[in-house]
């Protein structure tokens, strides 16, 4: 048995996405079918459409999603039909070297569904990040479903599935921001704004938001930034140093993914401070730094994949904080849209006035 649902598909490189009917198989062993309630539009979806991630067209886009488990296959015990879940792209395997040494957030053998979803002519789809959630329903590995409190709104909860988790985790997990620390966040889009929020949650003493767009700085202030710097108008490194007693920040989070902003992060931190790179560079980008500065300034240069999150640990905890009013996830939902408006949301991304457009089904 299988069922037909509507979904957003990128058929070929650079072409606008289209709304298609797809076939979702019944869940096999270890799999689950999830009825999607909301899915955020992320830059990675656009990168897939532009052919920047792989050539495995057609792609079933969408990966920042929450919904309700409709059916599970044999052997699935962690989730059951009716559970409200956030979908994750780190379904830890439990057997790889990272998992076995107790660091499952580095798991490099994460699970996806084994069966393929297809177009009606049988063409196999490649789901974005193994999820594919711009769809009424999707098929995933059961481990990709993390159960959370049903009282959270799906639009807000789904965002923890990718970008917002990446930002919060860059601060909490990778950067290990502590009480009283000074933090600077360079780039305050969805990911950077979430890093501001994470730093706030961790009790940072000063949170300096840096962006080239005043609107983004405004939002960052609403989410807990104590200071903001427009780096088009003033030098980011000097400004951060000035705001931290001349020292530089304890933790600088780079949420743009460019050599020039990484360089700013590198020089804007205090001696023995930490740089966290959570922005994703492109393959041709190169960075040159005096090796003596790398040595002489000490500290840690870290990268944060998916905020070094462990979905089973972090999603329910963050949703609970959200429901207690301590984590305003709703602030990231700039607009809610329909399934057939994803292409429009891609266009709006370039205008810079959106943290997240979220498809609500
Ligand atoms: N200096 C400071 N800020 C910058 C600069 C710059 N030179 N260039 C761009 N920005 C700002 C933009 O104004 C924007 O607010 O960086 C922000 C980027 O935000 P978004 O485009 O909304 O992207 P986001 O979803 O936050 O992702 C940021 O993290 O996960 C990765 O692939 C993602 O590389 C991307 C990064
Ligand atoms: Zn593993
Ligand atoms: Zn994403």
Automatic annotation (TrEMBL):
<keyword id="KW-0862">Zinc</keyword>
<keyword id="KW-0560">Oxidoreductase</keyword>
<dbReference type="Pfam" id="PF00107">
    <property type="entry name" value="ADH_zinc_N"/>
</dbReference>
<dbReference type="InterPro" id="IPR013154">
    <property type="entry name" value="ADH-like_N"/>
</dbReference>
<dbReference type="InterPro" id="IPR020843">
    <property type="entry name" value="ER"/>
</dbReference>
<dbReference type="GO" id="GO:0008270">
    <property type="term" value="F:zinc ion binding"/>
</dbReference>
<dbReference type="InterPro" id="IPR017816">
    <property type="entry name" value="MycoS_dep_FDH"/>
</dbReference>
<dbReference type="Pfam" id="PF08240">
    <property type="entry name" value="ADH_N"/>
</dbReference>
<dbReference type="GO" id="GO:0016491">
    <property type="term" value="F:oxidoreductase activity"/>
</dbReference>
<dbReference type="InterPro" id="IPR002328">
    <property type="entry name" value="ADH_Zn_CS"/>
</dbReference>
<dbReference type="InterPro" id="IPR013149">
    <property type="entry name" value="ADH-like_C"/>
</dbReference>
<protein>
    <submittedName>
        <fullName>Oxidoreductase</fullName>
    </submittedName>
</protein>
<feature type="domain" description="Enoyl reductase (ER)">
    <location>
        <begin position="14"/>
        <end position="361"/>
    </location>
</feature>
<dbReference type="InterPro" id="IPR036291">
    <property type="entry name" value="NAD(P)-bd_dom_sf"/>
</dbReference>
<keyword id="KW-0479">Metal-binding</keyword>
<comment type="similarity">
    <text>Belongs to the zinc-containing alcohol dehydrogenase family.</text>
</comment>
<dbReference type="InterPro" id="IPR011032">
    <property type="entry name" value="GroES-like_sf"/>
</dbReference>
């Amino acid at each position: 048995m299988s069922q037909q649902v509507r979904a957003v598909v990128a058929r070929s490189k650079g072409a606008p996405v289209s709304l298609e009917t797809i076939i979702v198989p019944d869940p096999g062993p270890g799999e689950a079918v999830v009825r999607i309630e909301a899915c955020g539009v992320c830059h990675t979806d656009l990168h897939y459409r532009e052919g920047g991630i792989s050539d495995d067209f057609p792609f079933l886009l969408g990966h920042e999603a929450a919904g309700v488990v409709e059916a599970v296959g044999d052997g699935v015990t962690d989730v059951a039909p009716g559970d409200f879940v956030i979908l994750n792209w780190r379904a830890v395997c439990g057997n790889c070297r990272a998992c076995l040494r107790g660091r499952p957030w580095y798991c490099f053998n994460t699970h996806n569904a084994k069966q393929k979803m297809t177009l009606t002519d049988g063409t196999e789809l490649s789901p974005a990040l193994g999820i594919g959630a711009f769809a009424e329903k999707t098929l995933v590995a059961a481990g990709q479903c993390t159960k959370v409190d049903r009282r959270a709104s799906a639009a807000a909860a789904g965002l923890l599935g990718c970008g917002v988790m990446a930002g919060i985790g860059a601060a909490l997990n990778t950067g290990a921001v502590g009480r009283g620390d000074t933090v600077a966040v360079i780039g305050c889009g969805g990911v950077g704004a979430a890093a501001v929020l994470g730093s706030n949650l961790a009790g940072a003493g000063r949170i300096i938001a840096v962006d080239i767009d005043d609107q983004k700085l405004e939002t960052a202030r609403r989410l807990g930034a104590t200071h903001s710097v427009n780096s088009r108008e003033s030098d980011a490194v000097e400004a951060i140093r000035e705001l931290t007693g001349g020292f530089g920040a304890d933790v600088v989070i780079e949420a743009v993914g460019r050599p020039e902003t990484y360089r700013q992060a590198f020089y804007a931190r205090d001696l023995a401070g930490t740089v966290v790179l959570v922005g994703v560079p492109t393959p041709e980008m190169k960075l040159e730094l005096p090796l003596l500065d790398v040595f002489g300034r000490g500290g840690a240069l870290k990268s944060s994949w998916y905020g070094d999150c462990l979905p089973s640990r972090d999603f329910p905890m963050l949703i609970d904080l959200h429901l207690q009013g301590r984590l305003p996830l709703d602030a990231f939902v700039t607009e809610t849209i329909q399934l057939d408006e994803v292409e429009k949301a891609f266009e709006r991304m370039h205008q810079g006035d959106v943290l997240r457009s979220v498809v609500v089904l």
